[in-house]
């Protein structure tokens, strides 16, 4: 299947620039998830690829075709929105067949492709139903089917599961990944939900305020965040970002030996990132803190504790601690993340 190549794309609406020098390549058949907060520009990027908006600068290639020079109908991409966009007066069969009729496909081929698509999506027994007779998950399947049936070169999915309840969203995530792998179509999936991103992506693209902050595998993004934004945006509960400094060869306030910072990097203010799962309650630990709050989640609890003049979050077994308790803890210092205090950029990336 054709690859997507976005080169130095920028987009403004009036005086507001919403995308800054966006560069993105996909691999053949890859599922790339674009993740970021609301209003960061991720849906605008999808609309530029689809041709619903025009880029101010840059190029968009789908395979060997420069797509930004083509009208939307000639790009052979399928865009699925979160609101399904089904025709309420049409049956499932008619909704699936509609894009093929517009393309003037032979009637017998339309019938065969509609049945094959409905069977693939588990909708073969609902072909005579109207959208109002379907559940949210079934309506989403019809919307996906209408995209699949066209045999596009590229799938573009704009938060397609956000209108579903939590249980259905979980099930549809699995179904979407399985469907995408079976079809082998290169896919760009936009979401603000980190759970969707972490469980679905072959690669993640993290965007904030129109800038790509990091591109990488799920493991790269989680364990090697490029900056404090990426570190804080990925992970539940959030990473601890603690004010610190480096002096006498030690990372303070934790008194941990520095491992990759140059010898002349002394007395510099930094941000120390520690994920909650890397803080271990330990009676023999060399750090002490006071419990401020405990959030019970059944199989675990999320604790907030006061360490020196800062709050830290850690995960522990439920039912053992209450606010006001004194605890001792240790740190898995092999998983520390160090960031420049002013820029937020990872020192591992700088050095």
Structure, explained:
- The chain is α+β, with helices and mostly antiparallel strands.
- It folds into two domains: 229 residues, Rossmann fold (3-Layer(aba) Sandwich); 113 residues, OB fold (Dihydrolipoamide Acetyltransferase, E2P), CATH 2.40.50.140.
- It contains nine helices and 20 strands.
- The strands form four sheets. The chain has a six-stranded mixed sheet, with helices on both faces.
- The longest helix is centred in the middle third of the chain and has 18 residues.
- The two termini are 38 Å apart.
Which SSEs are present, and which pair or pack?
Elements: E1 4-13, E2 16-25, E3 31-35, H1 42-50, E4 57-62, E5 65-66, E6 77-80, H2 92-102, H3 107-120, H4 136-148, E7 154-158, H5 166-183, E8 186-191, H6 194-200, E9 203-208, E10 211-216, H7 218-223, H8 228-233, E11 240-247, E12 250-252, E13 256-257, E14 268-274, E15 279-281, E16 287-296, E17 301-307, E18 310-316, E19 326-331, E20 337-340, H9 347-350
Parallel strand pairs: 3-8, 3-9, 6-7, 7-8
Antiparallel strand pairs: 1-2, 1-4, 4-5, 9-10, 11-12, 11-14, 12-13, 14-20, 15-19, 16-17, 16-19, 17-18
What percentage of the residues does DSSP assign to strands (E)?
25-35%
Helical stretch count?
Answer: 9
Number of strands: 20
Question: CATH fold name of the largest domain, please?
Answer: Rossmann fold
Query: What's the SSE pattern?
Result: EEEHEEEHHHEHEHEEHHEEEEEEEEEEH
- How much is the radius of gyration in Å? 24 Å
Which CATH first-tier class of the largest domain would you pick? Alpha Beta
Which geometry do the CA atoms define?
A: elongated
Share of helical residues: 25-40%
The assigned structural class equals alpha+beta
Total domain count: 2
**What's the overall average pLDDT, rounded?**
90
The strands making up the biggest β-sheet line up spatially as 6-7-8-3-9-10
Distance N to C terminus:
38 Å
Can you tell me the CATH superfamily of the largest domain? P-loop containing nucleotide triphosphate hydrolases
**Largest sheet features:** 6 strands, mixed
Low-confidence stretches: none
What is the CATH architecture assignment of the largest domain?
3-Layer(aba) Sandwich
């Amino acid at each position: 299947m054709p690859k997507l190549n976005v080169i130095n794309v920028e987009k403004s609406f009036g005086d507001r620039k919403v995308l800054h020098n966006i560069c993105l390549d996909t691999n053949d058949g890859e599922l790339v998830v674009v993740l970021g907060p609301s209003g960061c520009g991720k849906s605008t990027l999808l609309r530029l690829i689809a041709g619903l908006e025009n880029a101010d600068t840059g190029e968009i290639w789908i395979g060997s075709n420069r797509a930004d020079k083509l009208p939307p109908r000639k790009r052979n991409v399928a865009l699925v929105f979160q609101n399904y966009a089904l025709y309420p007066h049409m049956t499932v069969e008619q909704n699936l067949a509609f894009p093929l009729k517009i393309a003037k496909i032979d009637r017998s081929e339309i019938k065969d492709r509609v049945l094959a698509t409905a069977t693939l999506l588990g909708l073969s027994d609902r072909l005579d139903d109207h959208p109002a007779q379907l559940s949210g998950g079934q309506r989403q399947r019809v919307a996906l089917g209408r995209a699949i049936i066209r045999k596009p070169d590229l799938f573009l999915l704009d938060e397609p599961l956000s209108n579903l309840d939590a249980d259905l969203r979980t099930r549809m995530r699995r179904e979407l990944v399985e469907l995408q792998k079976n079809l082998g179509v290169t896919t760009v999936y936009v979401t603000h939900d980190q759970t969707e991103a972490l469980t679905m992506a072959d690669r993640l693209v993290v965007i904030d305020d129109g800038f790509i902050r990091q591109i990488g595998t799920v493991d790269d993004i989680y364990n090697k965040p490029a900056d404090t934004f990426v570190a804080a945006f990925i992970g539940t509960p959030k990473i601890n970002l603690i004010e610190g400094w480096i002096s006498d060869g030690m990372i303070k306030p934790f008194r941990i030996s520095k491992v990759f910072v140059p010898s002349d990097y002394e007395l510099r203010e930094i941000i120390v990132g520690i994920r909650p799962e890397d803080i271990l309650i330990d009676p023999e630990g060399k750090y002490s803190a006071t419990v401020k709050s405990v959030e019970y989640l059944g199989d675990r609890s999320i604790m907030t504790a006061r360490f020196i003049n800062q709050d830290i979050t850690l995960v522990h077994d439920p039912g053992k601690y209450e606010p006001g308790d004194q605890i001792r803890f240790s740190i898995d210092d092999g998983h520390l993340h160090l960031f420049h205090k002013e820029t937020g950029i990872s020192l591992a990336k700088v050095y």
